[in-house]
Specification:
This protein is mostly helical and about 270 residues long. The protein is built from ten helices and seven strands.
C-alpha cells in the first residue's frame, strides 16, 4: 500500500517538521509517497524504502549502479528537507534573540542565527543541483555537471525560466543567498546592520558582495528592512522555486522508471 508522508514517515525530524514544511513544499511529500515510502525489514535496518523491481533485461552490474544512484537521490531529497528544517529553526532563533536584554549577547545570537539561516539556504541550492546531476548520471551513465543538468532538463520542457529564477538565488558569484550571507554577516554586520527600536536589526534592501567596510560606512542606504522580514521573504521565495523545480523532477524521474520498466511495489 502506498504510504502517506505526514502519517507514515518514521523519521524523527520529518515527523517533527513534516506538516509545516510540506504545507509550503508539497512536492517533497509527493516524491516521498510515490518513490520512497517505507517497508518493514526484518534484518539489520528497521526500515527500508519501497521495493524496486527490475526487468530481467537489466544486468546485475547495471542494476547495482542504478540502485546506487537512486539511493543517492533519496539522500539529497531528504537533505533538502533537513536544510529547510534548519532554516526554520534558526529563523525562530533570530526572532528570540531580539528579546535578549544583554546587548552583546543579543548582537551575537542574532547574527549567529542569521548566518546559520543563510548557510542552510545555501545548502539547499547545493542539494537541488546535486539531485539533477544524479538524474543526469542515472540516465546517461556518465559524469554530469550539476548546473548543466538542471538547465538541460528544464530546457526540454521549455521551463528555462525556472533555472533563471533558481540561479538568481544560488549563483556562486552573485546569487542573493551567498551575497547576503557573505556580505552582511561576515563583512558588514558591524557597519551595515543597524538596531532600530520597534523594528529590530535592519539591513539594506539591496546589497553587493566584496565591499570594504570603509566604503559601506561612507554610504549608508536609506531604504532598509528588518532582518526578520527579509529572511521570511527569502525563505518563502525559495520554497516556491524549489517546489516548482521538484515538480518537474518528479516527472523526469517517473519517466526514467517507466522507460526502463522499473516497477515499485507499494
Amino acid at each position: 500500500m502506498q504510504k502517506k508522508f505526514t502519517v507514515d514517515t518514521r523519521d524523527a525530524i520529518e515527523r517533527l517538521w513534516g506538516r509545516r514544511i510540506v504545507s509550503k513544499f508539497p512536492m517533497y511529500a509527493d516524491f516521498w509517497e510515490s518513490f520512497i515510502g517505507y517497508r518493514r525489514w526484518n534484518k539489520q535496518l528497521p526500515l527500508k524504502w519501497y521495493l524496486y523491481k527490475y526487468p530481467s533485461s537489466i544486468t546485475k552490474v547495471e542494476k547495482r549502479k542504478i540502485k546506487d544512484k537512486i539511493e543517492q537521490i533519496f539522500m539529497s531529497h531528504y537533505s533538502i528537507f533537513l536544510e529547510l528544517a534548519g532554516a526554520n529553526h534558526h529563523l525562530k532563533k533570530m526572532k528570540q534573540s531580539l528579546k535578549v536584554k544583554n546587548n552583546k549577547q543579543k548582537i551575537f545570537l542574532h547574527w549567529e542565527a542569521f548566518n546559520c539561516f543563510f548557510q542552510h539556504l545555501q545548502n539547499i541550492g547545493y542539494q537541488v543541483f546535486r539531485l539533477w546531476r544524479l538524474l543526469g548520471e542515472l540516465e546517461s551513465g556518465k559524469a554530469m555537471n550539476a548546473r548543466n543538468s538542471l538547465l538541460i532538463y528544464l530546457g526540454r520542457v521549455r521551463k528555462k525560466y525556472l533555472y533563471l529564477q533558481f540561479d538568481k538565488f544560488f549563483n556562486r558569484d552573485n546569487g542573493q543567498v551567498s551575497v547576503i550571507r557573505n556580505n552582511i554577516v561576515h563583512f558588514s554586520s558591524r557597519s551595515f546592520a543597524w538596531w532600530e527600536p520597534g523594528i529590530g536589526f535592519t539591513i539594506p534592501y539591496k546589497s553587493k558582495g566584496n565591499i570594504n567596510w570603509s566604503w559601506q560606512q561612507s554610504r549608508k542606504p536609506r531604504v532598509r528592512q528588518s532582518t526578520i522580514k527579509f529572511s521570511e521573504g527569502m525563505l518563502e521565495n525559495i520554497y516556491n522555486i524549489v517546489n516548482s523545480i521538484h515538480k518537474e523532477y518528479i516527472n523526469f524521474y517517473s519517466d526514467f522508471l517507466h522507460r526502463n520498466k522499473i516497477l515499485i511495489k507499494y
